[in-house]
Design brief:
1 helix; 63 residues; single chain; alpha+beta; 21% helix
Length: 63
């Protein structure tokens, strides 16, 4: 089977917090899932001084 892949970036709520908006993240992932995308991994990004700046979702679906 052949796959297509997609990455989606999620930013933290502000520069002063390391919290993702979990409700918005869930809504976005559910929307992607209803379009056939399957979450493979969720990778957290770091910025300067190893501070967290967000996350990248890696998704796939059949071509």
């Amino acid at each position: 089977m052949k796959w297509e892949y997609k990455t989606v970036q999620f930013k933290y709520q502000s520069l002063f917090t390391s919290r993702l908006d979990s409700e918005a993240l869930q809504d976005d992932l559910n929307s992607l899932g209803s379009n056939g995308w399957e979450l493979i991994d969720l990778e957290f990004n770091t910025g300067a001084l190893a501070t967290n700046v967000g996350a990248i979702a890696i998704l796939k679906r059949p071509k």
